[in-house]
Specification:
The complex is a heterodimer of chains A (747) and B (152). Chain A is of the alpha+beta class. Chain A has 3 domains: 192 residues, Aldehyde oxidase/xanthine dehydrogenase, molybdopterin binding domain (Aldehyde Oxidoreductase, domain 4, 2-Layer Sandwich), CATH 3.30.365; 148 residues, 2-Layer Sandwich (Aldehyde Oxidoreductase, domain 4), CATH 3.30.365.10; 325 residues, Aldehyde Oxidoreductase, domain 4, CATH 3.30.365.10. Chain A contains 21 helices and 27 strands. In chain A, helix 13 runs parallel beside helix 14. The radius of gyration of chain A is 27 Å and the shape is globular. Chain B has 2 domains: 73 residues, Beta-grasp domain (Ubiquitin-like (UB roll), Roll), CATH 3.10.20; 67 residues, DNA polymerase, domain 1. In chain B, the strands form 2 sheets. A 3-stranded antiparallel sheet of chain B has the order 4-3-5. Chain B is globular, with a radius of gyration of 15 Å. At the A-B interface, helix 8, helix 10 and helix 20 of A face helix 1, helix 3, helix 4, helix 5 and helix 6 of B. The structure holds FE2/S2 (inorganic) cluster (2 copies). One FE2/S2 (inorganic) cluster sits at the interface of chains B and A.
Chain lengths: 747, 152
């Protein structure tokens, strides 16, 4: 692991001279394959056909080692395999599979590259093809995030299906004494030219003896029967009947229920505690002190919650400022430092401003945000006879395994991660704190399974928040056209915060700070974007669409300001500026769908925004209405281009889900700090979008893009600016700070 | 204390003050109702008492007099209730964590009001949060469930 970390650090200097040496070394070392993770756990009569397919007499099970947090990834990954394997959708069975480094994720790294997702130069292609896989493998990023799963699985999962299909054909050929080339496959059977049908299950044992064929041609898109269609999700029936298993639903014999209470000054230690009253509560089993708080283990969750509330604590302070405005002051001061990255510097903005007649400028800011997954973070663990089992909904199974290994001293073979459905993830479940507490509880009560459920209050006040951020801009128009645009953003670094809690420390710029600003398709003649980085403040992490959440709000509100300044229609101006056809078509589509420019009733207005995030051009239009009770969002339209849409109905759900997530944050999302503690504790003061506020949404999916893209996140970034721009159109009030409900009422 | 849940009567020895949610989940291992907030703000824990939706996190187990129905009692994967069928057909769920509560709230609404207007649907369903933002499909599913139940 030590060696791997060093390699990862070295190779991560993508874009600088260090790449070549690091990558070459990495390529040599790392291209050795990992062991097949399925082989260690095969049951009697079960065989592994590659890393992703298990086969036994009853048929095939597809391994989908991706965290299912609602995005439908397991369905889409299974469809990729089933497409090539020629099994019917009704017969598809899936399993999450073990935590294994063989399931590393290449695509997630792409977004961190300093190459635009639109760029197709030789160098860009080289980096994507040669550097990303090596770094991903070196870092063994077994993550679900970054809207990366679709791209990550697109070739490898179809190839897994095709390989298994050919292996089954070879086995059948041997059994029937015919040539494999005379055989066909359909509906889970190998079919011979004389009509003989052999089920895959009957070939299980023999297929495992076949040498897996290599370099099989994948079916062309025109021959797909499953991919490209809207499939019923594999988890849907379970989820509508209450039978889907989330981590808190695991029940094991003798299980205990626990909760955790840790220092509200995040990162601070516990100086002392008094649990006299808590220990007396009937049903309390054990109170386990830790460096930063306690775990209360009881007979049931309610007793654990109740007892935890009776403990008094002496907390040490944390190292960030006590009050919210001081946090903003730190971010503000970052603008005076050197920039962390300046990815875009076209023309000469300074010169352009000195020539300009009139310059507009402004400053924006956004607060911290909690993920507030519907399911508070939690996990269950059992330590028994030198083996640890951990049940957790998580976005990074191998990270959970690593923390469990370091806490127990056990080796990977003895740490078994059972990834459950996540009741929402949004980035929160790529952390490991929930697993850590469950493992600590299991250690304190060896032989007994313990479920550690965080109260909503603990979850809300101990998140890894979306960072606070500020944006400044200066712009001018010339001859009725945008002429110069200089944009600066500042925020603490997610990578620094991650490194503080044991994540990889990666040298160079933090590209997450600059996401979704420098690579936007606007051909403004003088155009510069810079990102500034502050020292760590609150613990922060990836929040649906990462840097795109704040940066698209800044950028697209500023572009809107520029349009109004130049006296141009904001959507038309964007179209005029766009230097990329795929993006242009997306914006044109949303304009058409929403009837942009049509005459609206007096008390209605529309706002639009565009963002290229995670490689997906996304345009959104929001229509609002002034009512006696405040502003009501009535309609929203979104167009995305994902290159190759695999499951349109699921893509649609991700787009409107992402949009609603972004609207909720824009309207009312705010986490603030007072006396060093988080103010908001539950949904009464950190509310979210509710049914009466949710607009009718129409989504359009285009397929002009060259690369296949994932869609978990792109729906979110344009939501806030589209709403803000609509509010400006309605009221003439430019809102440069989130959440908007500080300034306007929503009905 | 006696609790009748999904047609079965259970005798459990718990504090009267224990919220119904935890009695169901931790004592009876009926895990369909979910914990989301514990303060009646999210609806993830919604169950029926005598057919009407309540937030089980905020009802004392000792106060329950009627029959409790949870999502498991509404229908099963092989025999879904009309509301669950509508949810399945409209492919509503994303992460799914809020959906048992959403479905129980919708079933209760349709019992009280078999032909709800859009406005009533919006109001009745607003006590249930969905962080995945599945609202457009919830709306559609409530309507198709109303049609199914009306047609039955
Ligand atoms: S858990 Fe009962 S309403 Fe949220
Ligand atoms: S489906 Fe995830 S919270 Fe509703």
């Amino acid at each position: 692991m030590g060696a791997v970390k060093t390699i990862a650090r070295r190779t991560f200097l993508i874009g600088s001279a260090a790449v070549a040496g690091g990558a070459a070394f990495g390529a040599y070392k790392i291209s050795q394959p990992f062991d097949n993770p399925l082989e260690a756990n095969l049951e009697n009569g079960e065989f592994a056909l590659g890393d992703y397919i298990l086969i036994d007499e009853s048929g095939v099970t597809i391994i989908t080692p991706k965290g299912e947090m609602g995005q439908g990834v397991q369905t889409t990954w299974a469809a990729m395999v089933a497409e090539e394997l020629d099994i019917s959708w009704e017969d598809v069975k899936i399993d999450h599979g073990p935590a294994s480094k063989a399931y590393y994720n290449e695509a997630v790294l792409e977004e961190g590259l300093p190459i635009s997702s639109l760029e197709n130069s030789g160098a860009a292609k080289f980096m994507r093809k040669n550097i990303v896989p090596i770094v991903a493998k070196a870092m063994t990023m077994v993550t679900t995030g970054g809207s990366s799963s679709t791209a990550d699985g697109y070739v490898k999962m179809r190839a897994a299906g095709a390989t298994a299909r050919e292996a089954l054909k070879l086995a059948a050929a041997k059994q029937l004494g015919v040539k494999a080339s005379t055989l066909k496959t359909h509906g889970g059977h190998v079919i011979a030219s004389d009509g003989t049908k052999l089920s895959y299950g009957s070939l299980a044992e023999n297929s495992a003896k076949v040498k897996l064929p290599k370099n099989i041609k994948l079916k062309p898109r025109s021959e797909w029967r499953l991919l490209g269609t809207s499939l019923p999700r594999l988890d849907m029936k379970e989820k509508v009947t209450g039978t889907a298993m989330f981590a808190p639903d695991i029940r094991l014999p003798g299980m205990k229920f626990a909760t955790v209470k840790t220092n509200p000054h995040l990162g601070g230690k516990m100086n002392g505690y008094d649990a006299f009253k808590a220990e007396k509560v009937k049903g309390v089993e054990k109170i386990v002190p830790m460096d930063n708080g306690v775990i209360v283990i009881a007979n049931n969750t309610w007793t654990a919650f109740k007892a935890a509330d009776l403990i008094s604590f002496d907390w040490a302070k944390s190292d960030y400022p006590d009050q919210m405005e001081e946090h903003y002051a730190v971010v503000n001061a970052a603008f005076d430092k050197d920039f962390d990255s300046r990815q875009l510097d076209n023309g000469n903005v300074e010169q352009a401003f000195s020539d300009a007649d009139e310059i507009i400028e402004g400053e924006y800011r956004v607060p911290y945000l909690a993920h507030a997954c519907m399911e508070p973070v939690n996990a269950t663990a059992l330590l028994k006879d030198g083996r640890l089992d951990l049940w957790a909904g998580n976005q990074a199974a191998t990270d959970q395994q690593t923390i469990a290994m370091s806490l127990t001293g056990l080796t990977a073979e003895n740490v078994h991660i059972h990834t459950q459905y996540m009741g929402g993830g949004f980035g929160r479940k790529s952390e490991v704190d929930f697993s850590e507490y469950a493992v600590r509880a299991a250690k304190a009560l060896e032989g007994t399974p313990v479920h550690v459920m965080w109260s909503r209050e603990e979850d809300m006040t101990h998140d890894f928040y979306r960072p606070i951020a500020m944006g400044r801009f200066k712009a001018s128009a010339k001859g009725g056209k945008p002429y110069a645009f200089d944009m600066k953003v500042a925020c603490p670094s997610i990578m620094d915060s991650g490194a503080k809690r044991g994540g990889p420390s990666i040298p160079g710029s933090d590209m997450t700070n600059a996401m979704t600003i420098w690579d936007q398709p606007y051909g403004i003649p003088n155009y510069r974007t810079s990102a500034y980085r502050t020292d760590p403040l609150l613990p922060i992490g990836a929040w649906r669409s990462v840097g795109g959440t704040q940066n698209a709000f800044f950028q697209e509100s500023m572009i809107d300001e520029l349009a109004h300044h130049a006296g141009l229609d904001p959507l038309e101006m964007r179209l005029d500026l766009m230097n990329n056809d795929v993006c242009k078509k997306v914006l044109e589509s949303v304009a058409e769908m929403s009837g942009w420019g049509r005459k609206l009733p007096e008390d209605h207005a529309m706002g639009c925004a565009f963002a290229l995030a995670f490689g997906v051009p996304t345009a959104e239009v929001v229509e609002i209405k002034q009512t006696a009770d405040g502003i009501k969002i009535i309609n929203a339209w979104a167009t995305v281009d994902v290159g190759i849409p695999l499951d349109p109905r699921n893509i649609e759900a991700q787009v409107f889900g992402g949009l609603n997530y972004g609207l909720a944050a824009a309207m009312m999302g705010e986490i603030s700090v007072e006396d060093g503690k988080i103010v908001q504790t539950n949904f009464h003061d950190y509310d979210s979008l509710r049914m009466y506020q949710a607009p009718n949404v129409e989504v359009k999916i285009l397929d002009n893009g060259e690369h296949i893209r994932g869609i978990g996140e792109p729906g979110t970034p344009p939501a806030a600016p589209a709403l803000g721009n609509a509010i400006f159109a309605l009221t003439g009030q430019r809102l440069r700070e989130l959440p908007f409900n500080k300034f306007v009422a929503f009905a | 204390m006696k609790l009748t849940v999904n047609g079965d009567t259970h005798d459990i020895d718990v504090d009267e003050d224990m919220p119904l949610l935890w009695a169901l989940r931790d004592e009876l291992n009926i895990t369909g109702p979910k914990y989301g907030c514990g303060i009646a703000m999210c609806g993830a824990c919604t169950v029926h008492i005598d057919g009407l939706a309540v937030r089980s996190c905020s009802v004392r187990a000792g106060d329950v007099e009627g029959e409790v129905t949870t999502i498991e009692g509404l229908g099963s994967p092989d025999a879904m209730h009309a509301v669950q069928e509508a949810w399945n057909e409209n492919q509503v769920a994303q992460c799914g964590y809020c959906q048992p509560g959403q479905i129980m709230a919708a079933a209760s609404l349709l019992t009280l009001n078999p032909e709800p207007t859009d406005e009533i649907i919006d109001q009745a369903m607003s006590a249930n949060l969905c962080r995945c933002g599945t609202y457009p499909r919830i709306r559609a599913a409530v309507k198709s469930a109303a049609a199914k139940l009306g047609g039955a």
